[in-house]
Structures
1.
Amino acid sequence: TCKIKLNVHGYKMDNIPIIYVANHHSYLDSVILKYLLPNVHTIAKDDADKEFFLSNILKDVFDVWGVILYKRGNKKSGKKVRKLMAKHINGGGSILVYPEGKAIAIGGPKDFYPGSFEVAFNNKFLIQPITLKYETDITWGEKSKFSKKYHLDMITNINQCQKQINNVNVTFHPIINPNKFKSADIMKQYCEVIIRDEWINRHHYTSSSI
């Protein structure tokens, strides 16, 4: 096992159709959030399954988990995904999006892509920001000059995880209503500030450990 201890803060809203937006630090993010939000569908780039050594198995896992794949930078694919998101939420479901577009192992949350916020704003869908913060160095993702092997290789990362109990803070922020914003871009910036501020300062709401 990866010896993960979850510290959950805030109020998880899993009984209404919603778009969850979260910062992205590791392949573990999706495992953690799927555990906390078992019915949520997830948006992921179409080469996500190719990044893992169990790519054939993950294709089946993605289908079971309700992962919606898109091609980054492809307008046709982006338009299709936006329609699928709207259809799923209008049907009573919820969507999880990592608006950074990729896992960032080193450093805090980066700038968000606008697509999911435009979908929310144009369709008046509620958003709940989520901040993920790892207290131990077990993140995995985009290569940087500070990367170590376990930041890039899954097997090595799993071995790193097994060395100690790894506290992961998951903060569910208050619901955001698009009606209170003048544009999707302003709403996006607001979510960026909320998620980054929690990542840096860790303002704890009501919390529980799992």
Note: The mean pLDDT is 85.
2.
Amino acid sequence: VDHHGLDRLAAAHRQRLGVFLVQPDGKLPWQPWARAKKTYTRDHPFETRAIYDYRIRCLPAGTPRGTFYSYYNGWQIQQPAGQVVIFYEHNHLYRVIRLDGSPHPGPNIQLWMGDSVGRWEGKTLVVDVRNFTGKTWVVGDLGGEGMHTGSFHSPALHVVERFTIVDADNIDYEATIDDPNVFTKPWKLGYRVFSRAPKDYQLFEYACHEGNKTIELMKDLFKR
């Protein structure tokens, strides 16, 4: 794999994803110290294991990053009574969105994908997500190789998602990101999150495993 190939993959990812930031200048509103930390991580992605992308270490992607398009991920949505459940092909992830209005747990409970409480507003599922760890990234390119590398957050992260049913085959997505420990103000992103798969589509096992050589291979790649 060459750098140009990675560039093409990243460009195709961005084109398919259609992410936009609802900000006047289209930039994430980092606090100065947080921008410096994020930039250092981007420029030194393999310096220590502590700053490796958690997703390529077989750990959960977080929210909203777990909803980002990739060429090896699909989703399945089920609606049992009082819940919306999302299964992710990537890394066996799942989310249970409670619709019963129950409160979030106390702040000592910290979850990789956050705790999700939802409600319907017409054709839009509004989801309030709290109780995050500080270990995932808010955004990030496919393998942590792009400009968003190191886009961390704190456990104070609060995400409000809006899944809007556009038609029988498409769902749009908007997320408001608020973390007063890292950003100067809340900001938004949005894109077409789900399109209906062919009838014969099925989720396959995502075999992310111990002993995977991704880190070593990417180190060699970025030395070239």
Note: Residues 128 and 160 are 5 Å apart (CA to CA).
